[in-house]
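Please review the protein record below. Tell me whether the encoded fold seems credible here:
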Amino acid sequence: MRVVVIGGGYAGMSCLMELARRLPDARLTLIEPGLWHLKMTRLHEALSHPLSRFRIPYDELANRYGFEHRRERVVAGTRNLARWSARGRVSLASGDLPFDLLVVAVGAKARPRPSGTGFYGLADLRRREGQRLVEQIASSRPDVWVTVAGGGATGLQYLFELRDALRRAGARCRLRLVDAGDRLLPDQPAQFHSYVARRLERSGIRHVRGARLAGGGSGRILVDGPRGRVYELPSAHTLVFAGLDGNPRLLDTNSAGQVILDGRTLENVFAAGDCSRYAGGGFNGQSAQAAVRKGRHVAACVDRMGGGRRPTAYRSKELGFFLSMGALDGIGWAGLRNNTVTGLPAYAIREAIEARYELFLAGVDTFRVF
């Protein structure tokens, strides 16, 4: 069987690793322009550690799991997917690549940040050494403002990691969080907002609620506040986490993960990870947890189809959520949403979750129990 996976993030890698276990004789190909698999759930820690700590070369993973890595860029738009499905071939710059089953795991793309100096988006932080950014901020004149725009999980983890890194560097800058909502983490239990808000206040971080970053220039940002009022705030450095969009669009699938275009199911094309929206009630969050589960689910479906059986439905539920809040602090829940854990215990659980993925990449199937 020839299986082609587009995208080497959490969903793509978990799919390839599970396929290697289930179908050792399959011909597996990864199409991914990058050199490294990046542990995105730990990327905020690159403000305190070298970026290389969170990268694994695809060549190393390819040797370990027996797939071919093609460093090419393709656009998995609906028109291309329909054409590739009909022909059983992906069109690449180097020539057509035939497949029996195709898995689209391209993730999502960060919304664009304002242009100009002093603005840093998620795409910048994926390739820039965070320690150099901390050094740059620390070398600024005292009392400059540094802003994190976006109070989702990624923005908050960066904010608290940045607070700790700047303290270690002896910086005297002031931190600000700009968030469009009145409540932080609205999809999580109410205790999350209360706990994080208290930590912001104790850390001296100014929280600007109900406001959205509208633009800016050198040393300043424009904020769109309540009732459409736009005002200016000083900000020498601004980290922008404005959310994610489809890449190039969110793909709807049936409950098995097979892509649906214009009401028609593409039997030989699956989607997994942040680029997909599964029917059937399974966990669809844009998170590493859902991406890993969807990738493994698709691999199981490929295995079943290779044996002449029908693919199964994706039924995985969310098992928990944990937020890192700097050194030895965090908040999260496990199993049931009212099982909230804070402080050092939450930090320890999150570290255990990250260690579990490290073992998974190393070849220990820590997800088999699910």
In short: The first helix runs from residue 10 to 22. DSSP finds nine helices and 25 strands in the chain.
